[in-house]
Amino acid sequence: MKKLIQKLTETFSPSGYETAICEVIRKEIKPLAGEIRVDALGNLIAHKVSKSKSGLKIMLAGHMDEIGLMATHIDENGFIRFTGLGGIRPAALTGGRVRFMDGTPGVINSDRLTDLTKTPTLEQCFIDVGASSRKDCPVKVGDVCAFERPFLDLGNRMIAKSMDDRIGCAVMIETLRNLKTSPHELFFVFTTQEEVGLRGATTSAFGVDPDLGLSVDVTGTGDTPKGSKMEVALGKGPAVKVKDGGMLADPRIVNWMIRTAEKAKIPYQREVLEGGTTDARAIQVARAGVPAGCLSVPTRYVHSPSEMVDTRDVQNSVKLLVALLSAPVDL
Ligand code: CO
Ligand code: ZN
After folding, report:
1. pTM above the 0.90 mark?
2. Cα–Cα dist 12/149, whole Å
3. What is the CATH code of the structural domain delimited by 69-147?
4. Domain 2-66+161-326 classification at class level
5. What is the pLDDT of residue 123?
């Protein structure tokens, strides 16, 4: 599974530009799913038809896009000013490297800071691609780039850019691989534009019109020095979302997930995340409303170029998702 995670996290596909990652995932799931299609917003939808009539129509959503940057201005010396695609924190930028969609690499730095105790603002940061003038700069206004950082395997821990949410995509792909039978009609949706406002999940949830929805995404942890007051920690199992900044998970879904984890003896954690949300919110408020929840992979340093997950949490996330989808659901 690590090979797959490396392949997914080393692909560059910021929000709105998911074609590259879509092709990588399509190749992986081709032998595993029935019908596969891409909708107007670029969501990759794999459909597994069930044989049983008693099952539910279940939509799983993991987003393919990653946070990125978009060029807004190129000055006469070829330096690029930019805006964020998704939640960019300037503190995580300086010294980092990026790659544009045409392959152009660049490094991020900032205007000279007079107060060294402060981190630069986004407006003070620029990208240097080695150009010496506006004319020889290969980047145009509106071009997008993503963080460039290789995947690292530390054994029980893994570090990469875009674990948010390629790790969710990896969990869904492995679940497709390991799921022998399911009484349900399943839609594995690899969504677009999550980081800019759950846009792919909004349209795909309308199109799929599910009875039940689950997103598979990352969540923060409280296990780092002077970290946020949060119960979730790396290595203690997948997190069952109870609440985040955008949704209250349906309590029936929370109970179903916890019952299933306990029955299958899979470790789990209860998650309350104060900021941020996932595709599950878009599913929950689709059409006339859908019971929805989220299976979260605990992740340190979310939205930085080096996001860390625990290998066992990832494996247990696959186990839990397989267990959830293998049996009838009685909410
Ligand atoms: Co995110
Ligand atoms: Zn995410």
Report:
1. yes
2. 10
3. 2.40.30.40
4. alpha beta
5. 95
